[in-house]
């Protein structure tokens, strides 16, 4: 990995600072947005928020992140899944004002940690997160999403639907074909082409509901919910106490995503532009989301999957996707069309995207010649993989340490306390 601003990754078709031609820029950015869209709007739908504000918040948050990281990291921010259960409870008890205050509190935690890292450094990361920890964590990030992809592909609400699964497999196969056999510019947009092809297949199978598209207006303001305008300020201590600690959980996932991007782009973003800047961007995004009416935001694994598949790492493409997210949040018809993409199409794409994330974790272990003859390495990898993929979590009152976060913490602890060799190996 390199820290030089002049470095260009030879494996990338468009590297971070490469600017695509205008016609390419448009299509690549829309492809990126389409891939992020499903997860970004799913969170507000589960919580009871309007998806348009989540789309607006993700676009603004991504632009803020790009600004804070000096346009050096190709990351997209979307609605965070880690807060869903807490937000659902707060919505029932106190409505969005409590959720918004909790989102702001979670963002402020990021900002505080960013300031501490800025003043005291981040050299501890290399010691805390060597390849034997990073590789399995990245595998877990990809494979922990496997059930979500499978359910999207198979289930019509809660029932298995063969038609749904057929559409998902068709979407997967056609995307693989596009990825492997197309050349030139078309080879950079297999995800977008796969989504379009899958959508057409879904239309032919009669599983696309276009009623919302017909009813949607062309122009509609996002569902802003702003303190002082839509509601009066009031303290919600429960929201702060329950949502702020979850920021430490999403922070571990944030570190994992940056680690994957380091490997993918052959750079070290922990040092340039610095971990404090990545946390600053993520934190400010959640703070602003809380102010305008959206859910907390975080970096997305789907983003990494698209980067890995297309080898298009241009931050200009990411910025374009963010701008389209903002524009689409005001265009009712376009937002409705995107929302009409059925889950099996998203599931079919996710089979490939999430798998590519996991494969990058394997690649880290291989590239660093990790020795699994050593008991130490076997123990660390085994614990991370089974706890992370198995879904084990730590629950203390209303605070929950998710499986990915728990696996990350245990992996780091084992790496610090286990000796280099077991007694039987001496």
Name a few traits of the molecule:
426 residues; mainly alpha; two-stranded antiparallel ribbon; two-stranded antiparallel sheet; 6 strands; 67% helix
Molecular structure report:
With 426 residues, this protein is mainly alpha-helical. Helices cover 67% and strands 4% of the residues. It contains 19 helices and six strands. The strands form three sheets. It has a two-stranded antiparallel sheet with strand order 1-4. A two-stranded antiparallel ribbon has the order 2-3. The chain has a two-stranded antiparallel ribbon with strand order 5-6. The longest helix has 26 residues, at 22-47. It is globular. The model has no long low-confidence stretch (mean pLDDT 86).
How would the global form be characterised? Answer: globular
**What's the count of strands?**
6
**Unreliable segments (pLDDT under 50, ≥5 consecutive)?**
none
Rg over CA atoms, rounded to whole Å, is 21 Å
First-to-last CA distance: 33 Å
* SSE order, one letter for each helix or strand: HHEHHHHHEEHHHHHHEHHHHHEEH
Helix % is: 55-70%
Largest sheet data: 2 strands, antiparallel
Structural class: mainly alpha
Strand order within the widest beta sheet: 1-4
- Mean pLDDT rating: 86
- Estimate the strand proportion: under 5%
Count of separate DSSP helical elements: 19
Question: Would you spell out the secondary-structure blueprint of this structure?
Answer:
Layout: H1 22-47, H2 51-68, E1 77-79, H3 84-94, H4 96-120, H5 124-128, H6 131-143, H7 146-154, E2 155-156, E3 159-160, H8 162-181, H9 190-204, H10 211-215, H11 237-243, H12 246-265, H13 270-292, E4 297-299, H14 301-310, H15 315-330, H16 332-339, H17 343-367, H18 375-390, E5 394-396, E6 399-401, H19 403-417
Antiparallel strand pairs: 1-4, 2-3, 5-6
Helix pairs in contact: 1-2, 1-9, 1-15, 2-13, 2-15, 3-4, 4-11, 4-12, 4-13, 6-12, 6-17, 6-18, 6-19, 7-17, 8-9, 8-17, 9-17, 12-14, 12-19, 14-17, 18-19
């Amino acid at each position: 990995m390199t820290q030089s601003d002049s470095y260009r990754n030879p494996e990338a078709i468009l590297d971070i600072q490469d600017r695509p031609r205008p016609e390419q820029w448009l299509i690549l950015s829309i492809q990126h947005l389409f891939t992020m869209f499903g997860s970004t709007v799913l969170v507000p739908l589960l919580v009871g928020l309007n998806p348009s504000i989540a789309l607006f918040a993700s676009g603004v948050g991504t632009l803020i992140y790009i600004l804070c990281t000096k346009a050096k990291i190709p990351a997209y921010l979307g609605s965070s899944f880690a807060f869903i259960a807490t937000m659902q409870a707060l919505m029932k008890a106190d409505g969005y004002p409590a959720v918004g205050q909790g989102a702001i509190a979670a963002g402020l935690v990021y900002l505080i940690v960013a300031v501490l890292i800025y003043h005291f450094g981040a050299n501890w990361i290399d010691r805390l997160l060597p390849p034997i920890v990073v590789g399995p964590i990245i595998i877990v990030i990809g494979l922990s999403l496997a059930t979500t992809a499978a359910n999207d592909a198979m289930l019509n609400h809660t029932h298995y639907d063969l038609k749904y699964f057929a559409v998902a497999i068709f979407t997967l196969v056609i995307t693989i074909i596009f990825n492997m056999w197309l050349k030139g510019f078309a080879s950079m947009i297999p995800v977008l082409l796969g989504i379009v092809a899958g959508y057409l297949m879904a239309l032919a199978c009669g599983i696309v509901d276009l009623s919302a598209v017909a009813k949607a207006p062309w122009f509609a303001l996002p569902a802003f919910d702003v303190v002082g305008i839509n509601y009066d300020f009031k303290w919600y201590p429960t929201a702060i106490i329950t949502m702020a600690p979850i920021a430490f959980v999403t922070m571990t996932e944030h570190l994992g995503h940056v680690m994957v991007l380091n490997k993918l782009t052959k750079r070290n973003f922990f040092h340039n532009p610095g971990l404090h800047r990545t946390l600053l961007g993520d934190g400010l995004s959640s703070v602003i989301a809380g102010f305008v009416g959206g859910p907390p935001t975080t970096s997305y694994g789907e983003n990494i999957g698209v980067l890995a598949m297309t080898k298009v790492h241009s931050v200009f493409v990411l910025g374009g996707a963010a701008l389209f997210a903002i524009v689409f949040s005001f265009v009712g018809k376009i937002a409705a069309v995107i929302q009409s993409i059925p889950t099996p199409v998203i599931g079919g794409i996710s089979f490939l995207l999430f798998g590519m994330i996991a494969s990058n974790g394997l690649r880290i272990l291989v590239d660093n010649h990790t020795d699994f003859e050593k008991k130490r390495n076997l123990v660390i990898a085994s614990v991370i993989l089974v706890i992370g993929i198995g879904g084990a979590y730590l629950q203390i009152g209303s605070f929950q340490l998710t499986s990915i976060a728990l696996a990350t913490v245990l992996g780091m602890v084992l790496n610090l306390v286990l000796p280099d060799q077991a007694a039987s190996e001496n």
